[in-house]
Design brief:
mainly beta, 2 helices, about 10% helix
Length: about 150
């Protein structure tokens, strides 16, 4: 839900004064069923499909804002966050293990009592690879009160 709200509200276009591109995706497509041997009259084939990333165009009043996206394994990350990170305009800090499952195309299937999610693609990023910054959980030190002398 967060990625939808982030993108639909146009928040990303207010965070940069220059265009930013989000990662593209590559997936496998099938047109019919290619036989294991021999030929058919259908002209069936399998291929890789590459979908380019989206261009984030700055709003007229946009200013460069250094952003930090704080995530964990349950966070749905907006795809624009990866574009900002690759452009050097943001950092992604993760508590614990994380992956790109929230931003790649996938299909959810209900199989009897089991619900499975099948990954359909992989992220592609020109120039800068997509990378998460891994951190360990941390605690802030206790706040010490200043003592005043009487």
């Amino acid at each position: 839900m967060l990625p939808f709200i982030f993108e639909a509200a146009g928040i990303a276009s207010h965070l940069t004064s220059t265009p930013v591109k989000t990662p593209g995706q590559r997936s496998r497509i099938h047109s019919g069923f290619t036989p294991a041997f021999g030929t058919t009259s259908g002209g069936y084939f399998s291929a890789f499909e590459t979908v380019d990333g989206q261009r984030i165009s700055p709003n007229t009043d946009a200013k460069d804002v250094s952003a930090v996206f704080l995530v964990n394994s349950n966070t749905e990350l907006p795809l624009s966050a990866l574009g900002f990170q690759a452009a050097g305009k943001a950092a992604i800090l993760c508590e614990g293990a994380a992956n790109d499952v929230s931003v790649v195309s996938k299909q959810t299937l209900q199989l009897s009592e089991i619900r499975v999610q099948i990954r359909l693609g992989e992220l592609l990023m020109r120039i800068t690879p997509v990378a998460f910054i891994w951190t360990r959980p941390f605690r802030l030190p206790p706040v010490r009160e200043k003592r005043t002398q009487h």
